[in-house]
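Q: Got a minute? One more chain.
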Amino acid sequence: MERLYVSKKDEIIMKIMHYFVTKENYTPVIVNGVKDEIWLENSEAYYKIIRINANYIHNIEQYNFDMFKAKKIVKQIKKKTLSFKIHALNILLDLNEEVKVREDKTLHSLVIKNVKDIKSPKGLAAIFPNIKNDPLNDNNGLDLLINVTKDINETTAKKNHDFEDIFKQKKIIVTYILMGINIAMFILTYLLYFLSKGTINLEQLLAVDSSLIKSGEYYRLITGTFLHAGPLIMPFHLLFNMYALYVIGSQVENFIGKWKFLIVYFASALMGSLLSSVILGGISIGASGAIFGLIGSLAYFGYHYRVYFGQVLKTQIIPLIVINLALGFLLTGIDNVAHIGGLIGGILATMAVGLKHKDQKAEQINGTIVYILLVVFLFFMLLK
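A: Always. Here it is, folded:
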């Protein structure tokens, strides 16, 4: 049988690729116009971008040009993924010994010349110490190729399954229930008002009223978000909010799940009502604070899945937030403070409940703590 020969450079590439894809959750990135380079991306890691360069770099001029080219590609990825700051690791496999790597704040270069450099305390293990425990480092030749292929295929299959689980269309239930409650409350408000000849007014009984909330009627912080004003013939307030809830709510429910969606909705409604009561006072009604919370939740989701959602985030979600907040400041009769409160509440609540298939324990704890502290502070400001 003919013995399979794997070059030292290919062996290094396979072992590094195996570790980053299967253990550190990196995903290959397609970069046009490059040769003998592998680019990996993980938006949750410190080094969001890892580049493995197998090209031979002979002199300082080649090295400078290579750094320039790599940093340009990093900037493109940064722009595409809407990342505020990117640390990239530049792994060089074939650098002339006379060429010395230079320190760079955003693109850290590391020279790996042989397999031993992977586990070396001064090599890759200095940055990723767990790579020393990767059992694949003990394989070579055909065993290495088989195991790398098998493990990467299994990891890719799992990622594809997780992706399908998140983005596949699911049955929407909670959004329709919330829409039904809002519509029912609208009909009930005016039905009771006309049948009782004005003696029963649900807006007086249930609206977000800062003076009555201070007296202990805390339920108004939520009940007021299910009331809508407007004449029976032209209920624009209700129609606009229900259309927004249908479009945005169905997306958020589909992406984060029914129970998490419900928590985010009510957490956003509460935060919007509280902030409005503290800053503006007076009376407020409407679901728009909760809906802005769903927009915030969608933005948070889009940011964490920006590899797939980045263009939508830039061209649709962020402009939607900006335009609606701008309209709220320009037009009268709109409680823009409740919108801002709902937006903040939606982002924090989504942080707290977390996203499926994302390891976000630290963010969940931070989101929960910040949300609770903000609610307690607003209650204190309202009741003092």
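A: The chain has 14 helices and seven strands.
Q: Perfect, thanks.
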